[in-house]
Write a structure and sequence with these properties.
Elements: E1 2-3, H1 7-18, E2 23-27, E3 38-41, H2 43-51, H3 55-61, E4 67-72, E5 78-83, H4 85-92, E6 97-100, H5 101-113, E7 118-122, E8 126-132, E9 135-140, E10 145-148, E11 151-153, H6 160-165, E12 172-184, E13 197-201, E14 205-212, E15 217-225, E16 233-235, H7 245-251, E17 257-264, E18 272-273, E19 276-278, H8 281-284, H9 293-310, H10 313-342, H11 348-357, H12 361-366, H13 369-372
Parallel strand pairs: 1-2, 1-11, 2-7, 4-13, 11-19
Antiparallel strand pairs: 3-6, 4-5, 8-9, 9-10, 12-15, 12-17, 13-14, 14-15, 16-17, 18-19
Helix pairs in contact: 1-5, 1-9, 2-9, 9-10
Length: 379
């Protein structure tokens, strides 16, 4: 049984179904809405989705940038470029794509609807559980009870299973806010924006842009320092900041902005407890500076299914946690390191940009090569 019908939960359902399991998904929302904004799917995650038979549907709504162009956020000048496109696909056996989170969730949801041994129930939550005779009895908020082999917590960063039922530490506010928006492509005159990912590095801030929804919109993310507020807020304009003129002009085209406070799961990371597994943000909410949040959830899903297919439940969940912890912690460490580099204050930001200008493009890609090379043992 899975709690949560986001990317982690839906992917886990498909992976488990492929292994022959009957899967029940419980989702608190009454309707699956296309919330969120753009996400990046690197080769390590794309390969999993391809094995689930989703490649054609993914390609129809995704974009595949040729480069990540890195700019000085104060003056807009190009510092360096990281090759993506054919370079990354040939080296890692899968592409690097960008997609709207809602589009990916819709693809996964439709695939679950097409799968006979996956059932999705909306408007319900897990209220409690207890283990009994090698199974887990799960009580739902509607008064029903379900007996399952395992309960998978895929209920996001504010997981009630994680904090209220397992007593694990809640996520911690990072001190940063992600401002997100979408700009229609027909409002833009620069084709380069719609064929590449762009990263602007400023002082204590950065911005990222890339196309989504098959190139119909430009996704923009600004990450700035901010005060804690656990609710998404909306504003007509982006906050004032000392960005380059061209970037500021681009930001002013946005019709509306949403401010998302960024939280991170404190260590030690826990991913298994008796007959309960935690995946995705419920286990390891991470900062977005390595663009691996969704990818790690997708990896979790396939590795959990692999272990449940090979071992009894108790042993499977222990092995699942053991197989994931070191990688998750290493990716979280990379994200924190990237965040520190991206947000260096002056004068350190000047020397960061100067140093990056002379790094060979292949070396820039190499820094995350170990992330993209990953493949599950049994895939």
């Amino acid at each position: 049984m899975i709690s949560g019908a986001g990317i982690a939960g839906l992917t886990a359902a498909l992976c488990l179904s492929k292994k022959g399991f009957e899967v029940e998904i419980i989702e608190k929302a009454n309707k699956l809405e296309p919330i969120g904004a753009g996400i990046q799917i690197s080769p390590n995650a794309f390969r999993v989705l391809k094995e689930l038979g989703l490649e054609e549907r993914l390609r129809a709504v995704s974009s595949f940038p040729d480069f990540i162009h890195v700019h000085d956020g104060r003056n807009g000048r190009l510092i360096n470029s990281v090759p993506l496109g054919k370079t990354i696909a040939q080296r890692f056996g899968g592409p690097y794509c960008v997609i709207h989170r809602g589009d990916l969730q819709e693809i996964l949801s439709e695939a679950c609807d097409d799968t006979k041994n996956v059932n999705l129930s909306l408007g319900d939550t897990v209220s409690s559980f207890e283990t009994n005779d090698g199974n887990i009895n799960v009580s739902l908020s509607n008064g029903e009870s379900i007996t399952a082999h395992a309960l998978i917590a895929a209920d996001g960063v504010w997981s009630a299973i994680r904090t209220n039922m397992l007593g694990l530490s809640p996520p911690k506010f990072s001190g940063k806010i992600a401002w997100r928006t979408l700009i229609p492509a027909n409002a833009l005159s620069d084709d380069v924006l719609m064929s590449n990912t762009h990263l602007w590095l400023a002082s204590r801030s950065h911005a990222v842009t890339y196309p989504v929804q098959g190139g119909r919109f430009l996704n923009i993310i600004l990450i700035l320092d901010g005060e804690e507020n656990d609710r998404v807020q909306h504003a007509p304009n982006a906050p004032d900041h000392d960005f380059a003129h061209d970037l500021t002009a681009l930001l002013n085209l946005a019709p509306e902005w949403s401010a998302w406070p960024l939280y991170e799961t404190p260590e030690p990371i826990r991913m298994a407890h008796n007959h309960v597994a935690l995946i995705g943000d419920a286990a390891h909410a991470m900062l977005p500076f390595a663009a691996q949040g969704a990818a790690m959830a997708i990896e979790d899903a396939t590795m959990l299914a692999e272990n449940l297919a090979l071992h009894p439940v108790g042993a499977a969940l222990k092995q699942f946690e053991a197989s994931r912890l070191s990688r998750i912690q290493r990716v979280m460490k990379l994200a924190r390191s990237n965040g520190q580099i991206y947000h260096l204050p002056q004068p350190f930001a000047f020397f960061r940009n100067l140093g990056m200008r002379f790094i060979p493009k292949s070396k820039l890609l190499e820094r995350q090569a170990w992330v993209y090379e990953w493949k599950p043992d049994q895939l």
